[in-house]
Amino acid sequence: MLKIENLSKVYPNGFQALYDVSFEVPDGQFLVIIGLSGSGKSTLLRCINRLIEPSEGRVIWNGIDITRANDEELRLIRRKIGMVFQQFNLVKRSNVITNVLSGRLGYVNPAWSFFNYFSPADRAKALEKLQRVGIKEKAFNRADALSGGQQQRVGIARALMQEPELMLADEPVASLDPATSHSVMDYLQALNKEDGITVLCSLHFLSLARTYADRIIALKDGRMEFDGDPHEIDEKRFKDIYGEDAKEVHIS
Amino acid sequence: MFGDRPPSSMAAARSLLIVAAVLVGIFIYAWAFDITDISLEKPQDPERRSQLSRALRELFSPNIFEQDTDSEMVSVNFMATNNCPEDVDIEQPARDENGPYIVLSEECGFSDDVLVIEGFNFEFHPRNSGIIRWRLPNNTIPITRFELDSDGHFRQEITIPRLGRVSGDDPHQIEAESFIPTGGIRFTNTSKTVFEKMVETIFLALMATTLALPIAFALSFLAAHNLMRQLTMPLGPVLVGFIFFPIGWWVGATLLAMVGQFGADSWETTDDWDTVQALLSILFGAGVVGAFAGLRMLRNMVEGMDPQDLKSLTRKDGQNNSSDIIPAIFKASLRIASGIVALVFVMLVVGIIGGLAVWLGSEVQGLLFFNDLGNMVATLGELVELIIKIIGGLLGAFYLASMTSTLSAPLFKLTRDATIVEHTLGAILSATVTGMILYGLAEFSHQAALLILLVPLAAAFIGSQISPMIYKLIFPGDKYVKAQGARKWTLIALSLVGAIIIFVIVFVAMNAARGVVDGRRPLTEEVDVLSAGIKVYSYRALLIGLGLGAIMGGLSGVNSSFPFGLVVYNTTRTILNTMRSIEPLIMGIVFVIWVGIGPFAGMLALALHSIASLGKLYSEQVENIDQGPIEAVLATGANRLQMIVYAVVPQIVPPYIAFTMYRWDINVRMSTIIGFVGGGGIGFLLSQQINQLRYQEAGVAVLAIAIVVTVLDYTSAYIREKMI
Ligand SMILES: Nc1ncnc2c1ncn2[C@@H]1O[C@H](COP(=O)(O)OP(=O)(O)O)[C@@H](O)[C@H]1O
Ligand SMILES: [Mg+2]
To answer: Is the separation of the CB atoms in B335 and B399 below 8 Å?
Structure first.
């Protein structure tokens, strides 16, 4: 279980991106966070694995207070939390398998990893994860030779190498076309349903959120505006979240 | 609205300002014109012009090649007198009708008379050359050069040189010597020397670049803002680490260095192989490895390295569990033990490698082709042995510092809710550290008069930190927000004021005028403190350090965040920038004093400068990389070093290669002139040639430089283009 308690974030320039956000995520849930761009979705997700240091509040995961962990402990915690990014964040010049293997860095002996040595078991695992996301044959291509959808799948494979129990996905499909978006979301859904990995995924299209979410949280200007079932979001709620002038678009 | 356009009075004021600026500009240029001594007369001076054209002509007539020549020489007698008889009749040498001969238009004459010399029957060659000489009884004057036409004939008008007072009746001789090339064309000795020196130059540049490369590589990460910015640590552990640093250095430089020396000595005996010692060192090494492996296993068992086991974390729900303390101490001691064993192992290996290199090098040195290789290996081995104390010291210092600061970190956290303890501890620790620093600086400043400023400057820096802290204590702002607007400027002003006040006070207290005004070094007079002799000057610095440190640490407390990364960043940047501002030629002069004239001095100078400039270029590349992969790799639980290897290094390889090529290119250019200050390479030769006015030879060197630089320019541009 993931428990967010009174989380606030003030950036050094004084901008407050999150106001007192609290919610709980039971294990195995597919939680989608929606909100306009700038509403604080990325900030929230990054506060969970402390890529961004929260200003106030606590993040407690399976009884461990992540916000108070020291560097060493934080690394152990991060190993179990996978993350995928809007911009994929692959090392473009490295080949796909190296990118995937880098998901294993928290587990391996650092001395070996400096020489780019990974055990045969880890290499096999990397190929297996690539197989799972359907791009095993691209393993030895350079990452930037892949299409956007394929790159995001490499990102998912990298996160899978961590054997995560929690997956944070920060607008994983925002840079992809609709068809590819669905395929990437399907992979995330498979992880959630088949492996029981808890998924926290931010999206800015409501239609995608409705398709995949077990539950939706909406952020507006850093505050929680909505928390509940996908079909509870009616016309009025939609206008509350996205503003008066917004119109819902459907991605097929 | 009127506000849109400035009122006309303001416009007028602005144009007046522009006119004034232009006038000032003109005066500045006039002054600069005068200072730079620009004149139109000197370049027109005919004497200078002829010197110039001679120098240029010779520079562009480099004597690259030479060829053996055959010569034919004939001479005729000439009567040198200013009253020639009507009928001149002097005896001429017998003429061989088939061989070459010369004929004079007059056989008698004196200075400034003009005669015509004609030569016949010389052997012709397209590249012939000849010279006419005037041979007096006691010396020979070269008159002019001539060239044969295709019939082996020449006709040359000459003016009789100033002969002075003619003594005796012996006739003068006019001789003509014609040279024709025979045999193969070969390089002149000048060319050969230039070639050798050019090789030296290129290698000098290569060595300098190679030496600078790894150091600049390592430094570039420390000088990259994006990597260092995030690195903060609580103040307490930093201070503890700092206090233990010198202790670690001392222990490492004595004990660890002994281990290293032991490893090195095991190869000492070349004649009779000291089996016992070699065996001992192998056994010792094996023991160390065994101990390391054992401890490692034990540690893994205790710490439960099972990746699934997050439960081993000591803190759950933010509560400290007292039952965790005993295993924590046990774990910590295991960790320390395995660290120490690892250090011993590293030192042993370093020592053995050094010793092995010396031994191997000296064995190989005699062998024909391997002489250079043996020499290099042996020298590198000696270098390792030479710096074994430094390696041991560094390892010990960093190990002890990081170990103590890591271990003390949780203890400091316990004081989080006890403000008084937190701040008292801060005061004590920080007083110790600043006391140490200022004392160390004071001791060092006995080296030279101007260094007397070190202590006041360091104190001023602390002062600049203290005054904003006091302000923040009185007017606390939002702790997550960086100061902005008026508050930011107030803080900046305050830190300036603080720096200046402390600087002045310390300057006076330390009597720094002694160094700055009188150019004298600090007093070495001593006082008794705790029955130990200590220099008065250093003692004062110590007291100032203790005082300032106590205030600073007391105000901030042990749990305040210390921008460790930014301190490292700023220090590295400052050092790199200072080093870069010193021209390699000046560094060359210093190294020539140290290691003598020759390529070694030039190499060191260029290497040092390359470290600074490559370090800067590299670090800018690190700052320009895509941050995404860094974030992604950190999110997987990788440590910072792994992050650098997997997220940063792949991104910077192409620009690093490009910049290294570029630097080598620059180094070759620089090494062509570093010789001017004695730094070896072709510059040394060139400076000698120029000083001795041997412009034709200098021409060869200049040509060689031009060729090499151009070729390198194109190659490096080509490679760079391919890389990016
Ligand atoms: N490093 C930063 N410094 C200051 N403000 C930031 C920083 N990062 C994000 N913000 C601001 O915080 C708000 C929330 O940003 P973000 O979490 O990226 O929103 P979202 O992901 O929902 O688009 C935005 O208004 C953004 O401008
Ligand atoms: Mg975002």
So the answer is: no
